[in-house]
Amino acid sequence: MSAQAVDWDALMRAGLGGLGLAPQVFWTMTPVEFRRALEGAGIARPAARPMTRARLEALMATHPDRPTGDRHGPR
């Protein structure tokens, strides 16, 4: 797993300022709880659902790869 920098300043502004959470509440929330609170308040958009195998197969059937050499395909 790659390490990502956490923008604590932005998270604290959103939680303490945007949501009006008490510091104790902010620091005891799980990341999922915090995300859902932000979504519920309209501060963050709901996270996209991961693609399922069935959805991938449907997209592949609808938009098949073109054979190499096709005038619109990769060269």
Give an overview in words:
There is one protein chain. The protein has helices spanning 8-18, 23-28, 31-40, 53-62. By secondary structure, the protein is an all-alpha fold. It has one domain. The two termini are 35 Å apart.
Number of helices: 4
Distance between the termini: 35 Å
Number of domains: 1
Helix/strand-derived category reads mainly alpha
Question: Which percent bin holds the helix content?
Answer: 40-55%
User: What form results from the Cα inertia axes?
Assistant: elongated
Instruction: Report mean pLDDT, rounded to a whole number.
Output: 85
What is the tally of beta strands? 0
Radius of gyration: 21 Å
- List the secondary-structure elements in sequence, H or E: HHHH
Strand proportion, as a percent range, falls in under 5%
Largest sheet: none
Poorly predicted spans: none
